[in-house]
Specification:
alpha/beta, 2 domains, seven-stranded mixed sheet, 9 helices, 30% helix, membrane
């Protein structure tokens, strides 16, 4: 005669306890909601501020050396040749020697994307790999999407807005399918003024207007390759987001700061910039003035890579293309300030309900 489970439990109570524990555990496991991933909370990095200050002192000390180099080969900026000819006295420089990337990245330095053409240098990807509301803008794609795809693969919450004047939504096929929900595409050009009416082709947007259209107040990483339009475009960006600090004595300003342009107030709306420079038909004095505008707006170069692919196929014209990476040392972006990330639903991570006042959230808030 078969024994009932009840009689078995009476004879072996330890089995009953074990069975009840199993049932309770199974119920808890099946009924509990799937835990949401929490963004990393960055603690105060006491060394970060000191490292940034040290790099800034070193960078400022370089400015008189640049002026000395101009005096040596000019003696004025208007007399400096971008690429000296192959003839006596063979001055030992190119334009790139005046603009070294001396500001060391205070975090890890990585080259993301494909080897060769397409890969880009980035400072501190760990600072945004778990950061919610992470925003990436990328302008000018050509045929390589390896950098954007690698950024998406390397981060948890980042979304990338990809723009090109010759490509639209069909470009999404270049991004791996599991990542496409975090990639957005638009067929437009970046410029210094807005021209995106019905009859405009290509449609051109300023960075300020495009950010407003997308509802963004801050970009964590900005990438530009706009084929020679970077000079006009970036002057417009600086004009839209910063204001010239007028000096009563411009000559004295140049002597005390090391720059020949007035310093600027305000914060550019991005934490990091990666840009390809095309110096076709550029004069040294114009390039210098443009570069100094970036410097007085708070940008510091930490890496550059000469485009040797272009130089190989255009040996008659000089090394006219170079990619520079800049860190924005102003504001409260993720690369220069510690911050308390907030999860996508707006809830502060459970283990950090009361954030340390020394921690700072990323980016400026809406105006």
């Amino acid at each position: 005669m078969a024994k009932s489970a009840f009689s078995l439990g009476q004879r072996h109570p330890r089995y009953t306890i074990a069975f009840a524990a199993f049932v309770l555990c199974a119920y808890w496991f099946l009924s509990s909601p799937t835990p949401r991933p929490h963004a990393v909370v960055y603690r105060a990095n006491n060394d970060l501020k000191a490292r940034l200050e040290r790099e800034e002192r070193k960078y400022r000390a370089m400015l008189p050396q640049r002026q000395d180099l101009i005096t040596r080969f000019g003696p004025t900026p208007a007399q400096v040749v971008m690429f000296p000819p192959d003839q006596d006295p063979w001055p030992p420089y190119t334009v790139w020697d005046f603009f070294p990337p001396l500001f060391n990245c205070p975090h890890e330095l990585d080259r993301l994307g494909a080897l060769g053409d397409g890969g880009k240098w980035m400072c501190g990807i760990s600072r945004i790999q778990d950061k919610p509301n992470c925003v990436i803008y990328s302008f000018g794609i050509d045929s390589s999407y390896s950098f954007e795809a690698t950024l998406l693969q390397s981060t948890q919450f980042c979304e990338v807005w990809i723009y090109d004047s010759t490509k639209g939504e069909d470009a999404q096929n270049h991004i791996p399918k599991p990542l496409r929900h975090r990639a957005h595409f638009g067929k437009l050009a970046l410029g210094a003024s807005d021209r995106h009416g019905q009859g405009d082709d290509p449609k051109t947007w300023t960075l300020k207007s495009l950010m407003s259209e997308n509802g963004h107040s801050h970009i964590d990483f900005l990438r530009l390759d706009v084929e020679g339009w970077e000079w006009e475009t970036f002057r417009g960006i600086i004009r839209d987001f910063t204001m010239e600090r007028v000096s009563a004595n411009p000559a004295a300003n140049a002597n005390t700061t090391g720059w020949n342009v007035n310093e600027r107030e305000g914060v550019l709306p991005f934490g990091q910039l990666q840009i390809e420079l095309h110096v076709w038909n550029q004069r040294f004095q114009d390039f210098l003035e443009w570069w100094e505008l970036l410097e007085v707006a708070g940008l510091r170069p930490f890496h550059h890579e000469i485009n040797l692919v272009y130089a190989n196929y255009n040996r008659h014209s000089g090394v006219e293309l170079a990619e520079y990476s800049f860190l924005n040392i102003r504001g409260e972006n993720a690369f220069i300030r510690d911050y308390v990330p907030v999860s996508p639903d707006g809830v502060v991570a459970e283990h950090q309900q009361e954030p340390d006042v020394r921690n700072i959230r990323h980016g400026p808030g809406p105006e």
